[in-house]
Amino acid sequence: LQLSNTAILHQIRRDQVTDTCRANSVSSRKRRVLTPNDLKHLVVDEDHEMIYCYVPKVACTNWKRVMMVLTGRGKYSDPMEIPANEAHVSSNLKTLNQYSIPEINHRLKNYMKFLFVREPFERLVSAYRNKFTQKYNTSFHKRYGTKIVRRQRKNATQEALRKGDDVKFEEFVAYLIDPHTQREEPFNEHWQTVYSLCHPCHIHYDLIGKYETLEEDSNYILQLAGVGSYLKFPTYAKSTRTTDEMTTEFFQNISSEHQTQLYEVYKLDFLMFNYSVPSYLKLE
Questions:
Q1: Residue-wise pLDDT tens digits, 216-270
Q2: Buried b (16+ CB within 10 A) or exposed e, 47-71
């Protein structure tokens, strides 16, 4: 019974995606054809015929570790023995864009495909905290922080313009909703929408896991893959993770106008994955 309940749950999640894609077909199907570049987030496991679309800030480090155990042919047995930075080395995992078109089509049609999603604004605050408030993320500060400060901060000091390491959440939001940003280059993967990273209107995912039910969903997927007997999804201490309360606090200083514009940017993710409009928002 347990299994069939879970199966029903995933069916409901799939239907929600299908319905949202249909209802928003104008905006969601602009690009009819996926290019190989669209597929670089889809990690392929040949041995177990699985495809995992990774979304940064949704347990993707641990899922990449698990995929390395699955594809490592015995090289690794414990996901948590793999250092986090090792999990993000692109050559350690094969992605779908590395295959020929017929091979891509064959895998999309026959492999079990899954992704994990998270409440969009909680994911956004998590990305902001990780990339802009940690001193060690100097590459992000240089690449994005300096740009955000230059564009969003009046009378910025020379040091702030040079370092970009003190971006405020309000400035980050202003940068995200700035039409100039959207035109200039695609969002960085850490704040790109799931809908743009994983293309759920074009790729039919068999399973949609949620960050809120990470362990159950992950272990269900491993069970379906036939590896559940010897591989469990790593559990970890959630001490530093971004919570709903934290997210609420971050949004306190965002004007209702900016909240409304930001919600528009992430609206499809909210609808598609059945996340309600957060109660703390003051939408216009």
A1: 999 999 999 999 999 999 987 666 788 889 999 999 999 999 999 999 999 999 9
A2: eeebbbbbbbbbbbbbbbbbbbbbb
The low-confidence residues of the chain, meaning pLDDT below 50, are none
Q: Classify residue 114 as exposed, middle or buried by CB count within 10 Å of its CB (0-12, 13-18, 19+).
A: buried
- Domain ranges (residues) in the chain: 1-133+189-283
CA 118, CA 77: separation in Å to the nearest integer? 27
Cα 25 from chain centroid (whole Å): 22
Q: Are 84 and 71 in contact (CB under 8 A)?
A: no
| Residues 79, 150: Cα–Cα separation, whole Å | 41
**Burial category of 267 from C-beta neighbours within 10 Å (exposed 0-12, middle 13-18, buried 19 and up):** middle
Cα dihedral across residues 258, 262, 267, 269: positive or negative: negative
Q: In the block, which residue shows the tokens 């969903």?
A: 217
